[in-house]
Amino acid sequence: MRRKSLLALGAVALLAAAGAGLWWWLNPAPGPLKLKPVTFAELPGWAAGHPADALTAFQRSCAVFAKKQDNDAVGTYAGRIADWREACATASNTKPEAARKFFESAFAPVQILAGRVEQGRFTGYYEPEIFGSRSKHGDYQTPVYGTPKGLVSVDLSLFRPSLKGEKIAGHVENGKLLPFPARAEIVSKGIDAPVLFYASDKIALFFLHIQGSGRVIFDDGTQARVAYAAQNGQPYTAIGKTLIARGVPREGMSLQVIRAWLKAHPQEADAVMNTDASYIFFELQPVGDASLGAKGAQGVPLTPLASLAVDNRIHGLGTPLYVAGDFPLGRLFIAQDIGGAIRGPIRGDVYFGYGVKAENNAGTQNQMGRYYALLPKAVAARLGAKQ
């Protein structure tokens, strides 16, 4: 009897182990970057797309490439600037209606994988609108700060190549680089920095911090871009996680849900927002072409539904990236921006533009997609030879 029980227990253990192994195989954890050469015919939805906006965005990225040295790297896998010269020269003379033909003739696609994982998450961001005044009065009470005195930004890759794409910021005190205070202290005590203007809505200002840039409409009717200038060196925390920990349902969490909760709980709003220690400092710029966004991390104006924020520790800014998926995916983007929450080989943040419609679309954008990088053919050939 005991022997039968032991055999039964052994069988159960084997079945459990087999089940665990099957679950592991069907639900792989993201692994390191892998590149798989493919053809344009293998890109889901490519033939139905219209990459004219991506061509325009790529032309702007090429203007940045033109100022770089031939030997400068383009991310970790996309070769050197010299490899991109010919494609950029051709792009400058390409008309929008010939965009697809240009990309197909100048580039070869490779699928971006994270180990055995083929899909990643794609969220959205936008350029928010806030109301402000250059003087403190009435509803205009919340300061919007420029760069603090003594702020030092450090590119860690200059010290360790393995830290490419990682930066820290702080101030020097007694020969040591220290971070600036966290959000809670800056909000409550202020900071030694110029006040650019005063905002009328602290929640709207918080979302400006999250998005990184936006536009301000002053009480005299004039407007300006509010562009990212620096950060306090503290880690970013998504307050959606804070609300989930407080009992707000995870399912359906979005920008709109977060905003509604903050407005409905004014006594708790500050404490929740302050769980994000990160704090952004800005600079004012002319609006210029109102159809374009503020400048992204690559230094070029962002193009709605054609610019993408990526993990630049992996992907080189300026790289064309086709994202396969349902609308608004299923199109070609250009990597032109970065974000504190954008980490990993298959992760992206779609730029939706400016205004209420852009905010609504960006706030609910959260879907899975597949990444394909378009690389100069010589670069793709070298990668293929290494496979």
Lay out the secondary structure.
Layout: H1 2-26, E1 33-37, H2 52-65, H3 81-91, H4 99-106, E2 107-114, E3 120-127, E4 129-133, E5 142-145, E6 152-155, E7 167-173, E8 176-178, H5 183-189, E9 195-199, H6 202-211, E10 214-218, E11 223-231, H7 239-245, H8 255-264, H9 266-273, E12 280-285, E13 307-310, E14 320-324, E15 331-338, E16 347-354, H10 356-364, E17 366-376, H11 377-386
Parallel strand pairs: 3-16, 4-10, 13-15
Antiparallel strand pairs: 1-2, 2-17, 3-17, 4-9, 5-9, 6-7, 7-8, 10-11, 11-12, 13-16, 14-15, 14-17
Helix pairs in contact: 2-3, 8-9
Could you please describe the fold and organization of this structure?
By secondary structure, the protein is an alpha+beta fold. It has two domains: 33-124 and 297-385, Barwin-like endoglucanases (Beta Barrel); 127-295, Ribosomal Protein L25, Chain P (Beta Barrel). It contains eleven helices and 17 strands. The strands form three sheets. It has a six-stranded mixed barrel with strand order 3-16-13-15-14-17, surrounded by four helices. Strands 5-9-4-10-11-12 form a six-stranded mixed beta sheet, with helices on one face.
